[in-house]
Each structure stands twice: as structure tokens, then as C-alpha cells.
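Crash report, auto-generated. Payload:
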Amino acid sequence: MTLLSIENLDVRYGQFKAVRSVSLKVGAGEVVAMIGANGAGKTTLLRTLAGAIRPASGRILFKDKDVTALSAHERVKSGMVLVPEGRRLFARMTVEENLQLGGLVKRGGDWSVDRIFSIFPNLVKRRHAKTGTLSGGEQQATAIGRALMTNPDVIFFDEISLGLSPLVVDQVYASLAELLKSGVTVVLVEQDLKRAMAVAGRAICMLEGQVVLDRTMAETSRDEITEAYFGLKRGQRNDHGHGMGGAH
Amino acid sequence: MLNQIAQAIVLGGYYALIACGLSFMLSVMRVINLAHGSLLVLGGYFLWYLGENYQVSPFVGLLALVPLLALAGWALQRFLLERSARGGELLPILTTFGLSIVLDNLLFEQFGADTRSLAPYIGDLAWDSFELPGGIFVGQIGVLTLVAAIVLLGGLQLFLSRTGTGKAIRATAEDPDTAGIVGIDARKASAIASAIAVGSIGVASAALGMRATFDAYAGGAQLLFAFEATIIGGAGSLWGTLIGGIVLALAQTAGAAIHPQGFLIGGHLAFILVLFARFLFLPGEFTYRLRRIAGLAK
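Recovered output after restart:
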């Protein structure tokens, strides 16, 4: 069953097209990894899906309803939530308060502050600490917990390992294992290809704002993803290589 | 000496009460509402009008005034501040400045130059006092005002720290874009905050009219006292505002004790001293906030 459907989405920053006519579908319960170099449009796409950025054209359908015109908080109410790049916690509020903010939408569901603390036990002793004083790993756990508190149907993770030590990234992913098994739909942006391939069931590669590869992990290989990542297969795309005349 | 301190604390309660809405607006919305004093006087005229024409007690009049001002606060945010905020952080402040001029002159046109007071509509309360040990007398209005300030500031503090709406308002104040991503309607949270800030001015209007007289242009001086109490108290901490009001009143009283005309100067000096002390000893947070308010920092 298709949960999320994107049709011909264009996102621009002024003259610059960050996302170009992207169309894709995400089924309920899928775990999809978005892969691509810096500037490929992954974060822009996720932020557009979350309602933080308005698309120039195209449609976003969620549970068969057009949500393109909805603002960010209305999308959270309908069941989509973003764990933003760089965590974006409320630094003057405590861990517990940050988590409670996620619960304010009152969507109803299994997630509670106590359940968040049970998957991220390292947060328990920091419960009343201001999030500005937390370590990177604790902040990331709080940001994920805050998103889960909205009881989402689909959750977008934007670079959850960014700025964290490999050891802490392992811990965060270990904590996520239970979540990933629970049947929630996940779209994650991850720079670490190995980790993305281990977690996700499907890979979507983006290059210069377009989707250049969309396969299940079983049907693709590390090499194929790497090729797509760097845009090595030319000829499939007609807008590549402009501005490079005379360089060779 | 003890008597003067007691009177200053009571006066400080009044300053804290009139600073309450200003401080709330500054701390959660980062807007210095320069129409604060004018709204205060507008509320005073509303209560006076009810008392003069319909013999309504100002305490009963508050039941109508506070919701009406809250509605005005909501409209202020939705139709003026929200729009002007798109033009930078300085524009909302200028907008409230313009609003204050419009309000002052409308009030003058409507009510003329006569000074008004609410004292005729509250009976004996206007002059009754409590006797404290040591033969010190404090006016009942003053004590009532001090209690109102403590209840209002404490109530708002509890509201911000305990309720969901309060937390949503704090989150919106810190980062409205991220608040949206978490599912908070930032526009609604800001409008509620503005409604509360302006609604609370009504209580201060009653105190203004009961303890003294006012005219159409009385708002400026009230705004100045409220602003000084807010800044002395730490620019946006609600309990700090109570302390700020009392410190301001103590400084004015000390000024008056030194020289018959030193009342206002004492208060201004305390304000400036605290301002400089903060620059010297707390450079980070406070200058950051000031720079933010002035639109110089993100």
C-alpha cells in the first residue's frame, strides 16, 4: 500500500533548482535510504516533505490526500515527522520538555516519555537537564524521541549520524533497531553507505536534484550505488557536464 | 527609614504589575511593545467610563476589560506584529511606537485634557490602609497591587513551565520554524502569547486608576517605569520583573531621600547602573538579546 507519493516535485532556492521533477512512492512499512553527495537535494527533499520548504511545483500525497498546501505543523498532525539535520532542539528547555512538545499534537498512540526513555536509557539521568548541555549523542536521541512522541506514520531522518563519533552512531542505530522493526515507515538520509545498506530495504540515489537510482537493496549493489552517487553513468542524463567545456 | 522601605516595596509591586505584560511580551516574543503604556491608559479610561456612566466597580469592569484587551492583543499580533516581523526585528518595535501615538491622540480627542481617577468608584478602599508593626501604614490599594503582581507573575511563570500551551509558546519563542516541524502551530502560539501579554495589562490599568490619576498622555511615563523594571529584573525573566520593580522603587525612594527632586533620577540611575553592570559582568546572554532586539544578530 502506498503511504507517501511524490509527483513531479520541483523545489527552488531563487534561480537554483535544488530538486527537479522528482517522483517516487513509499509504501507503508518501508525503510528507504536516500543516498547522494552533498548538494544533491536530499535534505531539501526531506524538508519539503515535512513542510519546512514550499515546493515550486508538484504534489505530495500522503495517505491518498494532497498535503502539498499544508503547513509543517498540520503535516505533523496528519502523521509525518522530520528529525532535522543538526537536531534543532530547544536548548533552553529540558530533555523531558522537548519530548513533551512532540506529544502536544495529541495524535494518540503508543509513544510516551517513559517509552522514549526505555529505548534511550542514556537519557534518563539527563531528564531535567537543558538540552544545550547534552552530548551530541544525547541530543540526537532527544531529537529522535521528540519526533517519535508525535506518534508518526512516517518518520524522516536527516543525517542522524552527522557530527557524532562512530561509537555514538552505533549506539543510536542500535536503539533504532527496535523502532525500525515496529513497522513505522522510515525515510532516512545517510552519508554512510554501509550503514544505509544495512538498515534500509530500498535505496534512492539523488544527483543534482534528480533521482538517478531507485532499487531495493536486494536488486542493487554497492558498486551500482557508488556509480549513481558520483554520476558516473553518463548519457542517461542530458543535463550533465554543462559548464565544464575546455576543462579537459 | 523602615517606613520608606515598606512604601518602596509596595510601590515596587505596582511597577512590577505594570511591567508584567511588557516583560512577558519581551521574554516570549522578543518584541518591546512601545504601545504598552498607551494600552494601559486605554484600559484605565475603559474602567473609568464604566464607573462614570454605569456605576460599575472597576473590579467588575475588569471582567470585561481583560478579555477585550486579550482580543486586542491577539489582533495586534495577527494583523500588525506578524506582518511587520517579516521586515526585520526592528519593524515590530516601530509599529508599536506608531500605535502608541495613534492611541494617545485618539484618547486625547475623545476624553480631552481632564485627569481621571478610578478612586470615586471603589469607596473606602481608595484611602484605607493597613497598620504594620512599628506604626507603619501602607495603603490597601498598594498592598492589593503588590499581591496582584505576585499572583499574575507567578501564574504566568507556572503557565509557561507547566502547561502544554506554555511550553509551545516557549518553544515558538526560541525557534518558530522548528516548532512547526514538531507539530506546534507557531502563529497560534504567538497570538496566544500576545493575547495574554496585552490582557494582563488590564489588571495594571485598574491599579493605575485606583492609586492615582491619569490623562491621555500618561502612558509614556508608565511605559518608562515598566521598561526600567523589566530591564533591571533581567530582560524577560518574570520573577526578575518583580525584583526589578522593587529595586526601581527603592532607588527612587533613596533618590528622594537625598534630594527633594531626586525621585526620578534615583530610578534612572539604578536602571543605567544595572544596564552597565550587565554589560560588564554578563556579556554573553544580555548583549546577545539586545543585539537581537536591535536586529543586529540572528
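Post-recovery validation: The interface with chain B takes residues 50-52, 71-73, 76-77, 81-82, 84, 88, 90-93, 97, 100-102, 104-105, 146-147, 150 of chain A (CB under 8 Å).
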